[in-house]
Amino acid sequence: DVKVTQSSRYLVKRTGEKVFLECVQDMDHENMFWYRQDPGLGLRLIYFSYDVKMKEKGDIPEGYSVSREKKERFSLILESASTNQTSMYLCASSPRTSGSYNEQFFGPGTRLTVL
Amino acid sequence: QKEVEQNSGPLSVPEGAIASLNCTYSDRGSQSFFWYRQYSGKSPELIMSIYSNGDKEDGRFTAQLNKASQYVSLLIRDSQPSDSATYLCAVGTGGYQKVTFGTGTKLQVIP
Questions:
Q1: How does B54-92 read in b/e, with b if 16+ C-beta sit within 10 Å?
Q2: Minimal Cα distance from B7: which residue of A?
Q3: Which residue of A has its CA nearest to B104?
Q4: How many Cα atoms within 13 Å fall on the side-chain side of residue B61?
Q5: Smallest Cβ distance to A50: which of B42, B97, B104?
Q6: pLDDT tens string for chain B (111 positions)?
Q7: Spatial CB neighbours of B69, under 8 Å, sequence gap ≥ 6
Q8: How many CB pairs lie under 8 A apart between chains A and B?
């Protein structure tokens, strides 16, 4: 089974802090994604990566950055946390197969509260 | 127009009935379609994927795809209270293996 783990289930930070969210997958997947999920807005893509050291902006990248130094690890960074970044953050991974879109498998999520 | 649309619900069905969940999408070039189940406070869990027109069955779940009409549906037979969750429709569209998620339909199965 695919296993995607995230460093924290719950996190409380203060406004202005730099926040690191870590995600690790153990299935040698090429693609990794970071989403945030808010009530009424659904899942929104922040950033994704299709290879080591490669990254692409998603729909809402402002205020976030990412790092992928190793294939199994994808980090989301909030450079200066703000209260409007309080949300559930979900990491996902998927294999890359030419010509098709593959199932994404999610980690358990990190509920981040910024005070 | 949203790229992937779902009725937010809640959809209430009695235990043992068939629950029918629907999803429409706007990009005619979409190739892959997925249904995820999400329990409250948990992350989405993939339950079905479908890539070609027609029906695909897996246990009590049947996914139906009609590309001409741009809709995909999920049928849950013999609904159980444990099926009560939010069901997310996701569509593979665009490049780089991205999928677009609908906002989900909340299903309530009444014992």
A1: eeeeeeebbbbbebeebbbbbbbeebeeebbbbbbbbbb
A2: A40
A3: A42
A4: 16
A5: B97
A6: 668 999 988 999 999 999 999 999 998 888 899 999 999 999 999 999 999 999 999 999 999 999 999 999 999 999 999 999 999 999 987 555 778 999 999 999 999
A7: none
A8: 54
